[in-house]
Design a protein that fits this description.
heterodimer; A: alpha/beta; Dihydrodipicolinate Reductase, domain 2; Rossmann fold; 2 domains; six-stranded parallel sheet; 15 helices; 33% helix; 19% strand; B: 317 residues; alpha+beta; T-fold; three-stranded antiparallel sheet; 9 helices; 15 strands; globular; metal ion binding (chain B); EC 2.7.1.180 (chain B)
């Protein structure tokens, strides 16, 4: 166990610099770290002992529902896919950065109606031509795939035109700012399938970390899931700066009622989607609350929101997000009668109850008692990452070669090459969008909204 | 506004009219975000950064990096060439050899210095491939440390974004080693006045400058050093000779680009006063200042300058 000492040394140093807010909430419980890079080790260990009353299950196979998501394309000897990225704001440029590392990603065009942004995009994709009219990319036969990263309320026209032109489409989440637009997009995507791949940018579905954790959920490690909680906290104005009032207006579409689904549709959607996915269900109802408490700068959508989602079986997801305070960061928590799982910053932990049955793989997992009031939380280390000289679990989301967008891009391009549907397709994207938009509606009205089956149907 | 990044406290002061407060705050947030982006790509302390991946693997095979990282390294290589190697990102093995990487310093064997020197020099040891967007090392042991230029580069990117966002008057500093200025602090003012601290007398200033759309970087021999064979060895090493810099205690540079000032202040500390004519010829926009110990030692410093940026130079504090 020579490695273990190395691990601990590394982590103690790193973690001492960080006050772990999360740890405060979980004092005194034993934590086993679940990290996607451990999947090799996990697969080699004996099968987990199932909860009482269940038949033995296969070892958790991360990515079983993530399709090809679990295995990022390794070699660079893959067929290139010609790509145009439309919409060069923050998200579009993040995609360009990630695509720089995705095998076979051949970015041919960067497109934005605002030419002054072209240079920043071309810094990231020097070989791409900059255009202001996306139709030029649709007309080019060398372009097979279109990334739509424009403001959400402008997705519809571009996605429909791209599908019409026979292109594969990666549509950023949310699909749209209105259910009507989302339905039009998802319906057209479904009609074009399976010939054309449609990928909705629900990033966690293609993220190996989430797929890894899902393996534990599906094999019953939590036993009965009784509660879910997600938060997103950041002190930021969430406003984009620009030199001219017109440009500023265009950039800050997400702060206005007419064009935005607010925090729930633009940010909460990803976390609500994880719950939909892990619980294998859409919610039955949502109650929402919200207000503008910090940024009274003329914006029309709340900077602080809370929602309570009811899922089948009397399981609730409580969700809160604020732009006024960053304490506690962002995470997703699932509580079961035997254990809880927390997903946070590209890492995950399991906290077992003392009366929970032992799991077969448990003895192999890194564990640490978290009873230290400084809030030090040890992150288990994976031999593979250590061998690469990395500190496992560190900065996974800022690492462009391991970030969510990288895996999403790799999944999308692989789906195109293998002519396989994306695991984050039209239906998944639409369901999450409907839930998030209704949640936003509940926030804006302070009321409760019931979901019906028809709401999620694409006909 | 302030934020922590690159192990320093960064601060922005925006002096534009307050009627656009929301926009200015958003501009500041974007600038800080960019500094964090640069850190994520270039930090030698983050295993996931492009630069860390390069340091780990570029001796085995070319490592794919993002285009901005490649252009950063291209610029660093050009600055290394323009300073005849006095500034060079590959100086790391020499620092280790002299025990300054994490330690207090120790006299190395001549052979160890000779060995380390083979690993130093971007021109000889680092291959930048623009077509493949890759970085390769000529031999194992080469190591890129963005320390001498990373903050200046991040600051330059942040200033560009502030300018694009319509900010006209602002001061941005990284720790206190590099400061960049846009416009002026108040209507009618000639620029932002920034003082350079005296290197040996606390609370005294060596000089001050007035910055308008310019940057200032200061490099000094503060901190780590050790005594051996009757003399002091400082932690600033000359990449060309492998030996510690002798008598220069402080170098400061004012120029339009903070990336340049950051690199040139390091180069000037290494080159000393003898380097002034060369740098002045190659960087006509730059104002240069070098301070070295006076003949008696402990007395007033000897200060040499190029350019008219340096006001009220007081060598004796």
């Amino acid at each position: 166990m020579a490695e273990k000492n190395d691990d601990n040394t590394l982590n103690r140093r790193d973690l001492l610099q960080r006050s772990s807010a999360l740890a405060l909430g979980f004092l005194g419980m034993g934590a086993a770290n679940l990290h996607a890079q451990e999947l090799v080790a996990a697969a080699e260990t004996p099968a987990p002992v199932p909860p009482p009353g269940q038949t033995p299950a296969a070892p958790p196979k991360p990515g079983t529902e993530g399709g090809n998501a679990k295995k990022p394309t390794a070699a660079s000897n893959v067929a290139p896919v010609g790509i145009a990225v439309i919409g060069l704001g923050d998200q579009g440029r993040k995609h360009l950065t990630s695509l720089g590392y995705v095998p076979g990603a051949d970015v041919r065009y960067v497109c934005d109606t605002y030419p002054a942004i072209h240079k920043r995009a071309q810094d990231l994709a020097p070989k791409a031509a900059a255009i202001t009219d996306y139709r030029k990319a649709l007309d080019d036969k060398a372009v097979q795939a279109i990334y739509v990263a424009t403001p959400s309320h402008l997705h519809r026209e571009i996605v429909l035109a791209a599908l019409q032109a026979g292109k594969h489409v990666y549509c950023e989440a949310p699909l749209a700012s209105s259910i009507e637009d989302a339905k039009a997009i998802a319906t057209a995507a479904k009609a074009a399938s399976p010939k054309q791949i449609f990928h909705a940018g629900m990033q966690q579905r293609t993220n190996p970390q989430h797929n890894h954790v899902l393996g534990f959920v599906r094999t019953g490690a939590l036993n009965k899931i009784v509660n879910a909680r997600s938060v997103w906290n950041k002190k930021t104005s969430w406003r984009k700066p620009a030199a001219s009032p017109e440009r500023e207006q265009a950039l800050n579409w997400h702060l206005r009622k007419a064009t935005s689904g607010g925090l729930m549709n633009e940010i909460g959607i990803h976390q609500v989607d994880v719950t939909n996915w892990f619980l294998k269900s859409t919610p039955i109802s949502v109650s929402g609350f919200g207000s503008i408490l910090q940024w009274r700068d003329g914006r029309e959508v709340p900077d602080t929101v809370q929602c309570l989602f009811e899922y089948p079986g009397n399981v609730f997801l409580s969700y809160s997000a604020t732009l006024a305070n960053s304490f506690d960061g962002a995470y997703e928590l699932f509580q079961g009668s035997d254990a809880a799982i927390v997903l946070r910053d590209g890492r995950a932990w399991m906290f077992k109850e003392v009366d929970a049955p032992a799991l077969g793989w448990e003895v192999y997992a890194s564990k640490e008692k978290i009873g230290d009031e400084t809030g030090i939380m040890l992150v288990a280390d994976a031999t593979k990452l250590l061998a690469e000289g990395k500190k496992p679990g560190e900065h996974t989301d800022t690492d462009p070669t391991r970030g969510s967008l990288y895996f999403a891009g790799d999944h999308f391009l692989t789906a195109i090459r293998e002519k396989k549907e994306s695991v984050s397709g039209a239906q998944e994207g639409y369901e999450a969008n409907v839930v998030a938009l209704k949640a936003h509606e509940a926030v804006m009205t302070g009321g409760k909204i019931n979901f019906t089956k028809e709401m999620f149907s694409l006909g | 506004m302030a934020r922590e990044a690159m192990r320093s406290r960064w601060e922005i002061v925006i002096a534009d009219p307050a009627d656009a407060a929301a926009r200015l705050r958003a501009a500041g947030e974007e600038a800080f975000d960019e500094i964090e982006n640069v850190e994520a790509q270039l930090s030698a302390y983050r295993p996931s950064s492009d630069l860390s991946r390069v340091n780990r693997s570029a001796a085995d095979e070319p490592v794919r990096v993002s285009p901005p990282v490649l252009s950063f390294l291209t610029r660093a290589a050009a600055l290394s060439a323009a300073t005849d190697g006095a500034f060079d990102l590959t100086v790391g093995p020499l620092l280790r050899c002299w025990g300054f990487a994490g330690g207090e310093g120790d006299l190395p064997e001549d052979e160890a210095v000779r060995q380390a020197r083979t690993l130093v020099g971007m021109r000889e040891n680092v291959r930048l491939d623009n077509d493949a967007t890759t970085v390769g090392f000529a031999r194992a042991g080469v190591w890129l440390d963005p320390g001498a230029i990373g903050k200046g580069y991040a600051l330059e990117r942040a200033l560009d974004l502030l300018r694009e966002a319509g900010v006209r008057n602002a001061l941005l500093h990284a720790g206190t080693s590099t400061v960049g200025a846009l416009g002026t602090p108040a209507p009618g003012a000639p620029g932002w006045t920034v003082a350079v601290q005296h290197p040996t007398r606390q609370d005294a200033r060596l000089t001050q400058v007035c910055l308008r759309d310019r940057a200032l970087s200061v490099s000094a021999q503060h901190g780590k050093s050790f005594w051996a064979r009757g003399r002091r060895f400082g932690h600033v090493l000359d990449p060309r000779t492998g030996q510690p810099v002798q008598d220069t205690v402080l170098a400061a540079v004012v120029a339009p680009s903070p990336t340049d000032t950051d690199a040139l202040s390091t180069a000037l500390l290494v080159l000393g006063a003898a380097g002034l004519p060369m740098l002045a010829a190659r960087f006509p926009d730059a104002h240069l200042l070098v301070a070295r110990e006076g003949p008696e030692g402990g007395g007033p410093l000897q200060v040499d300058t190029v350019g008219d940026a340096w006001q009220d130079v007081t060598p004796d504090g």
